[in-house]
Write a structure and sequence with these properties.
Radius of gyration: 28 Å
Strand content: 15-25%
Number of helices: 21
Strand order of the largest sheet: 5-6-7-3-8-9
Largest sheet: 6 strands, mixed
CATH superfamily of the largest domain: P-loop containing nucleotide triphosphate hydrolases
Helix content: 40-55%
Structural class: alpha/beta
Low-confidence stretches: 501-523
CATH topology of the largest domain: Rossmann fold
Number of strands: 20
CATH class of the largest domain: Alpha Beta
Distance between the termini: 52 Å
């Protein structure tokens, strides 16, 4: 057996209330590929931080092999203190590490290294952090939700890169396909303790269900023993009762044992509030196109979406998926073509980017609107505390500010709010982010039973396979093609999945966009170029702020009903600002590459 690189023994940790970890164990040996699974709030991320040395347990031991190098990827990487992504990645290298690997990984992850860290999107920050942990080729990789905010090409590249490494790994992820392909053993963190299965994630769910069924059987046997002892106490002869003080003590022990048993955490109860039945044809698009300046985002696209369809939309980042959603739902007008929304369509968008969350409000006020203790779900008036329990929130969390919730809790809160809103058309934008596997199972079941129509943007291949009845694939140059079935069916029909545009192709495109002057004449920056290099960063930052403000305005659920014309204007303005941002970033990158070439 390989020598352990990290060993955690008898780990105990309590945050305020109930113990989070109770005698938890974790051992990582050379060549291990572990997936760490468990419900949201079970302590997976905390256990990984203890293994990485960033959190100290109340009790227990942590042993690390003296020469072992550890790299830890947090859910929310912090790049502050570094000017560029390259500086951030290079700071993670140790003496003797290959300095060129930092640039290689950034290039593979579609980053140049010149990106200012204070202007990165969530996906860009995640890719930079991934490059930093992979660059040293460490002995141990501790990765907390590495696929969050990554598109499908980046996820599939990451799978290939991790498979090629000799590093031991511990992975936390909601992406079943990712875990299936990388894990060789499974550690289940449940009710403060860990169990280990020497098989990959594909065997986990059957193993877990078997354990939970056995526990329920043992609990039933214990309940019967208690009932028998209580019956003896009530109806036994008084003299016998006095002579059998030991039996009375055993009854007390049984009751204590039953009271102290920690049952498996209850499941989230998901049920979407149904609106009126929509017409048979929910959305019909005829030869629609949309362009921003010279950029063609959607080209000559037609589709009929019928009641009950579940349409997945996939493609690399920047392929126009969000623009297509906005066109199909009427939030944006097409440049040409026609879109018809069917009769009685009541749409609700489930925004898993958390932009609908007001972080300073409380959980209760977010669910109820702040004016009541009740809310209506499927026509039934529910008290907020009862509805919160359906989504595994405790009564004590009612007054908790949204900003202190974990990523998984925020995901459940957005779900709770969305599913309480009557609808017959659900638009789901990356709904799987930060949700645990059990909640994902229930969300899939809910969508299978949902009588309305679903539009789904997701990078989770397994989720698409389980939910989608057809997939719209961004083929490039604004073209979208529809394939029957889920993501795997699309790959089988198309011959390949979503692929990234090679960096070399991007460079050639940028070069082709430059003026055709002779090389000797063009290898200098004009006054206009220099001015653009100086002013574009501020322009980009202003556009980021404007986009954030517009998204917050459009996230208001009552905005569309209150003023449809203003809503459409805001959506069009948002699309224009996003296109301007893309143009500004591409221009700045082109000029920065030219400046570097001149200086070198």
């Amino acid at each position: 057996m390989a020598a352990p690189l990290i060993q955690l023994q008898d780990i105990h940790l309590t945050f305020g209330g109930a113990p989070l970890l109770q005698g938890t164990e974790l051992m990582v040996s050379e060549g291990d590929r572990l997936c760490l699974v468990g419900r949201n709030g079970s302590g997976k991320s905390t256990l990984l931080k203890i293994a990485a040395g960033f959190v100290e347990a109340d009790r227990g031991t942590r042993a690390v092999a003296p020469s072992a190098t550890i790299r830890y990827l947090p859910q929310e990487p912090d790049l502050s203190g570094y000017e560029t992504t390259l500086a951030f990645v290079e700071a993670g290298l140790a003496p003797g590490d290959d300095p060129y690997r930092a640039r290689y990984l950034l290039d593979c992850l579609s980053l140049t290294g010149a990106e200012p860290t204070n202007q990165l999107s969530g996906g860009e920050a995640r890719r930079a952090a991934m490059a930093r942990v992979l660059a040293p080729s460490p002995d141990i990789l501790l990765l907390d939700e590495p696929t969050n905010h990554l598109d499908l090409p980046a996820i599939e590249w990451l799978e290939s890169e991790l498979n090629s490494l000799r590093s031991a790994m511990v992975l936390i992820s909601h992406d079943r396909r990712f875990l299936d392909r990388l894990s060789r053993a499974t550690v289940w963190l449940d009710r403060g303790t860990t169990r280990r299965l020497e098989q990959g994630f594909s065997a986990f769910e059957l193993w877990r269900d078997t354990i939970l069924e056995q526990e329920e059987l043992e609990r039933h046997k214990l309940d019967r023993r208690i009932a028998m002892e209580e019956d003896w106490v009530r109806y036994g002869v008084t003299a016998r009762r006095k002579r059998n003080q030991g039996r009375m003590a055993r009854l007390g022990d049984l009751r204590t044992q039953r009271r102290e048993q920690r049952r498996a955490t209850a499941n989230v109860r998901l049920a979407a509030s149904e609106g009126e039945t929509s017409g048979t044809c929910v959305i019909e698009a005829r030869k629609i196109s949309k362009a921003f300046d010279a950029l063609q985002v959607v080209t000559d696209f037609s589709i009929r979406i019928m009641r009950g369809d579940r349409v997945g939309i996939v493609g690399q980042n920047g392929a126009g998926k969000t623009t297509l959603i906005n066109l199909l739902t009427g939030r944006m007008a097409p440049g040409s073509g026609e879109i018809k929304i069917g009769a009685n369509v009541a749409m609700h968008m489930l925004d898993q980017r958390r932009e609908v969350l007001a972080f300073d409000t409380t959980v209760k006020d977010f669910l109820t609107g702040g004016n009541s203790d009740t809310l209506s779900v499927n026509g039934v008036v529910r008290h907020y505390a009862s509805y919160m329990k359906d989504f595994l929130f405790t009564p004590d969390q009612a007054r908790t500010p949204v900003r202190v919730l974990s990523g998984g809790e925020r995901g459940r809160l957005v779900l709770a709010k969305a599913l309480a809103t009557p609808s017959n058309l659900l638009v789901l934008d990356e709904p799987t982010n930060d949700l645990d596997l059990e909640t994902l199972d229930l969300l899939q079941e809910m969508l299978a039973e949902y009588p309305g129509t679903v539009l789904l943007v997701s990078h989770d291949r397994d989720f698409l396979d389980r939910v989608a009845t057809s997939v719209l694939m961004a083929e490039g140059n604004g073209r979208f093609a529809e394939y029957a079935g889920g993501y795997s069916d699309m790959v089988a029909q198309r011959g390949q999945g979503v692929t990234a545009k090679p960096r070399e192709t991007l460079r050639k495109s940028a070069a082709a966009a430059k003026p055709s002057a002779a090389p000797a004449e063009r290898r200098k920056l004009t006054f206009k170029d220099k001015h653009a290099l100086e002013t574009l960063p501020a322009r980009i930052e202003t556009l980021h702020d404007e986009i954030k403000l517009l998204r917050n305005q459009l996230a208001d659920e009552n905005f569309f009903a209150r003023d449809q014309k203003a809503f459409a204007g805001g959506a069009a303005k948002l699309a224009e600002r996003e296109a301007s941002l893309s143009t500004a970033e591409e221009r700045w990158l082109e000029l920065e590459l030219l400046r570097e070439a001149i200086e070198s």
